[in-house]
Amino acid sequence: MNSFVQKNQKALYKVSAVLGLLVVMLVIPHYTGIWDNPFAVPILILFWLGVAYLVLPEFFKKYRIAILSVYGLVIAYNFFFFTSTPDHAQNDRLSLVLFMMLPIPVFVALWFYEQWRWLKTLKADKAKAELALLKNQINPHFFFNTLNNLYGLVVEKSEKAPEVVLKLSDMMRYTIYEGKEDVVLLKDEISYLENYIELHKIRYQKKVEILFTHEVQEGLKVAPLLFINLLENAFKHGVAEIRENAFVHLSMQSQGKRLLFTIENNFDKSASNNTNGTGLENLKKRLEYLYPNRHELIVEEKASIFKVQLNLELL
């Protein structure tokens, strides 16, 4: 409560000081004329600086050194004007007015620039927050299902259990740490997809044809976790619902800074859950943020085959 009262008192003092300057500014020209008193212009400047401080306190505090330095020079020039030109010629008065008004458009332009930069930063922060949310929407059920499978392998004392532990550990480490980065090496993203595929091979007892071919240049970087949603969809809406002859084919190729990723799988049209889910919509939103006007996403569905082609222009 005391801090609230103190803030109100400070605000009242500031307003009172500005009003006091206003009174003085109005009184002096009334008796002497604004061009006949060397203190009239400094008081006028102080009044408007006070108004600027009340209206735009953050801007004034940020650029106070520049503002006070500029108008300190104006006030100094004002006193020089009165001492060097006793007759106050009209041209001299005009030069004083121009000198006093010249910094105003500069500071106004600077204020508009600050507002533009603030809006741009606000939009960037919003985009980052939404991207973080989209990353967190990556399906966690895979990890839980893999842990359940791992439990079964441990109970059976299967030789595959250590391999599953290592691959799952690598995937979780990649998701937690590399997933926070803006870009990662493309070869690391490929390794992530390969680990995902290998774990699914262990999970499914039925025969599934999974082919992943890739030929990319060294050193290319891409946004992390960009392809996993497409691969998840292929298993969730394809392999999981087909009893036999299920397949998932993936291909990734690079040509200079262009990257082409293709994935296709077969699915059961009679299955009740044959939609694409949120994964594809998630990917579309991320691409709009990360690769605006630098991506092409083509989705095709025909003859029980679902195919997605993603073209990216990397930086």
Can you put this structure into words, describing what you see?
With about 325 residues, the protein is of the alpha+beta class. The protein folds into two domains: about 1-100; about 135-315, Histidine kinase-like ATPase, C-terminal domain (Heat Shock Protein 90, 2-Layer Sandwich), CATH 3.30.565.10. The chain has eleven helices and seven strands. It has helices spanning about 1-30, 40-55, 55-60, 65-85, 90-100, 105-135, 140-155, 160-175, 185-205, 230-235, 275-290; strands at about 185, 210-215, 220, 245-255, 260-265, 295-300, 305-315. The strands form two sheets. A five-stranded mixed sheet has the order 2-4-5-7-6, with helices on one face. Strands 1-3 form a two-stranded antiparallel ribbon. α1 (about 1-30) packs antiparallel against α2 (about 40-55), α4 packs antiparallel against α5 and α10 runs antiparallel to α11 (about 275-290). It is elongated, with a radius of gyration of 34 Å. The chain starts with a helix and ends with a strand.
Q: Tell me about the biggest sheet?
A: 5 strands, mixed
> SSE order in H/E notation?
HHHHHHHHEHEEHEEHEE
- The tally of domains stands at 2
Q: What value does the Rg take, in angstroms?
A: 34 Å
Helix tally equals 11
What's the N-to-C terminus distance?
54 Å
The CATH superfamily of the largest domain appears as Histidine kinase-like ATPase, C-terminal domain
Overall SS class: alpha+beta
Q: Please count the beta strands (DSSP E, at least 2 residues each).
A: 7
The gross shape turns out to be elongated
Under CATH, the topology of the largest domain can be stated as Heat Shock Protein 90
User: Averaged pLDDT, please?
Assistant: 77
Strand order of the largest sheet: 2-4-5-7-6
Please state the second-level CATH architecture of the largest domain: 2-Layer Sandwich
Unreliable segments of 5+ consecutive residues? none
User: Portion of residues in helices?
Assistant: 55-70%
What's the CATH first level of the largest domain? Alpha Beta
Q: Report strand %.
A: 15-25%
